[in-house]
Here is the input.
Amino acid sequence: MIVSCYQAVGDGIGTAKGLLHAIAEQESEAERSLMHRFNIATGLTKRAKDEGELGLAGILVWMRFMATRQLTWNKNYNVKPREISAAQDRLTDLLQQIFTEQPHNREIVRLIMSTVGRGGQGDVGQRIRDEILVIQRNNECKGGMMEEWHQKLHNNTSPDDVVICQALIDYAKSDFNMDVYWNTLISNGVTKERLGSYDRKICSEPRFSHDQKYGLIRDLTAYLRTLKAVHSGADLESAIATCMGYSAEGRGFMGGVRIHPISGLSSELPGLLQFIMEHIEDKWVGPLLEGLLEARFELRSNLLKPHDRLKDIIFLDLALDSTVRTAIERGFEELNNAQPSEIIYFITMVLENLSLSSDNNEEIIYCLKDWHHTIDLCKSKSDQWALYAKAVLDRTRLALTEKAEHYQKVLQPSAEYLGGLLGVDQSALSIFTEEMIRAGSAASLSLLLNRLDPVLRNIAHLGSWQVISPVEVRGFVITVDELAKVQNEVYGQKTILVANRVKGEEEIPDGVVAVLTPDMPDVLSHVSVRARNSKVCFATCFDPNILDDLRAKEGKALSIRPTSSDLVYNEIKVNEVLDDSENLSQGHGVSQGIALKKKKFNGKYAISADEFSDELIGAKSRNIAYLRGKVPSWVRVPVSVALPFGVFEKVLSEDMNKGVAEKIEALDKLVAKGDFSKLHKIREIVLQMNAPSQLVGELKDKMQRANMPWPGEEGEERWLQAWMAIKRVWASKWNERAYFSTRKAKIDHSDLCMAVLVQEIISADYAFVIHTTNPSTGDSSEIYAEIVKGLGETLVGAYPGRAMSFVTKKSDLNQVKVLGYPSKPIGLFIRQSIIFRSDSNGEDLEGYAGAGLYDSVPMDEEEKRTIDYSSDPLVVDHNFRRSILSKIAQVGHAIEELYGSPQDVEGVVKDGEIYVVQTRPQM
Here is the structure.
């Protein structure tokens, strides 16, 4: 055994570390020949299959390094082709077995097989992307025209690339005569204008030195064969022949060959494959794409069951998949002046192809259904079609992001760790996962979405921005990856954050005057409310070019002026920010501490709604009790009881919880000294508290008197579930988000007291939040609301996507204007149950947006479901939508009139009935 002289990168967390070391230890033997490599790979893959996804990820990374020639293929070892073939057969037979036995790992097995291919060459379509990198590296030509061509090839390889490659070969053979280069291009229809028309333009001329000549001729000639194989369907033709059967007579010393057809294939498949080969080079790729996808669909059932020649079926499916990608890229040229419906048609094709290549494809399928509904709306000339299509586009982007993040999580740590052990070039490691993603349908889909997005925004009159908190500001630009990672920072000068990721639950850091993001938090999410309350400009940007421009202004001083539908920014002089009005502590933070009146235990562990008072419970409980009997009779208000202020402290002081109290006290002291990692530990310890019998008895009595179901009636286990939920509410006092928020506001954390509002949870069809003054414009004549499928936590919490949003004038509540359709992929649903809501004395305070910092916990776990909007009546039924949205607006207006001030109202819809679960003053 020869140990690698290279060093691993990182600590191997997130990898099958032992397997990666085993690969590195055997690499010196594997590089003797492909026969050796495949034989060793078979042994290591047997081990990897028992280590799950990360084990197979290690094999994929290794085989990918091989396919991209990052590793040595042969060290002058004389090996017969049949020996390579036999070794490869053993490896692919094993991969076939794993494909059958581990359905959840089929996608990664496909990827491994695409790198192994027939004889180690890999998927030919993929080789187009891989081999250009090899040519650049071998011949030291990474800049200029070669880099422009590389970027074009990664985006959309087309038959033009055959011409470009031939032109480069002719150019090199002529001792770099530029006239020869252009003659080859122009005589084959590739003009300078055409080179400049690609999505990734080729503007430069090639520039090589004479010592590069023979290496370029050799490598480009080999590359030309790959390009011709893809664009003439030669690789697909081989896969088809293997599955359909063929025979060849022997000649001279060469023996004859007979391959039998695979049994059990669809009777429709031969005709589809013949159609594909007849149309493989068609300029208009629509019929070809339909044929390719239909053929993949016909193969689907054969891929999902055991078969002695399953690997040949997989290789055919890989070839069809590769041909779809190539056809899509070729079809980009036809979309330069296309109608939106044509782009959408291509999007549906790519989505269907992606779904056929993915293990967990439920979200992709729902996106596909949404796009088909979009096509129907477009054909019907609905005035809402572009607005709906924009939501579908946003949801599709979220699905792509999720897929990319999964690839990054599973593959990148293994690539970096194993690459370090094997001495792979760092530049190849840093973009490993990116290149894997760009090689698949997801990259083509992303390009199509980027092309359609500005078209939809223009038709729907959406502009490039959605302004969530319209505040005019000045500051210095700083770019961050995630707002969550800097939410506890203190910026010493007025700062405009360009944040790539905003989930919706974050705090706005001290010193920040604006947050600009491509992410799409709901207008009524926690972070949006806090931005408005803190007078921070907050906006979503839909135009990647604008975002790139903002990122390029890192460190520069800008002024930002939002309008009702846009945001204007300009560079200004540094002193205009430094001399700008007040100190940072005034207006962008709370300069004076807010004093809370510490609450004490009043002798009662539980109280009924008619006992609610400001000494016993918070504003949340008091407001909901106040509504009962005062809102219109058709508005339902759930009955409530509460555990008042001081109960937590009383329970903690009991002898049975003495040990818990001592641990919390000790950890609290460490937190006060700045060890914030102990916040999580405190929350864990709170959950160890025991319930005194008096608390159990009083809570049972109050709930039964209110005709609420008592959890203990279903058994001790159900009560313990309820008790755990109560403790989670109390423990949320030590949430990082809440702790840092109160700290910034100079609120004494020890004065914070937590009551618990107990309500029967409604198994909602929809949940909504209303602001009775439009928060984006400040227009008090308008009601603004957002509504989601299922429970409201997906609206106010850190769940990706947008809710449905609408406005209506108070003067005519029946005239509803939809501002945006939903793009949230997930809905939360729950059985009829009990919810325990946080109700602290640190919420709804003047000058401090404390709402939403603490947790409300249902007794039962919510069920996550992927949402099908194509059949949701709120989306597809105009009359139902108008009725529900109008009712919601009427509720908001009635509650505002009751309180005499703008309100922030939360509620749900169940079987067409409206329930209000919470109201507070709008901040």
In short: The longest strand covers residues 490-501. Residues 250-255, 581-591 have pLDDT under 50 and may be disordered. Residues 385-422 form the longest helix (38 residues). The two ends are 69 Å apart (CA to CA).
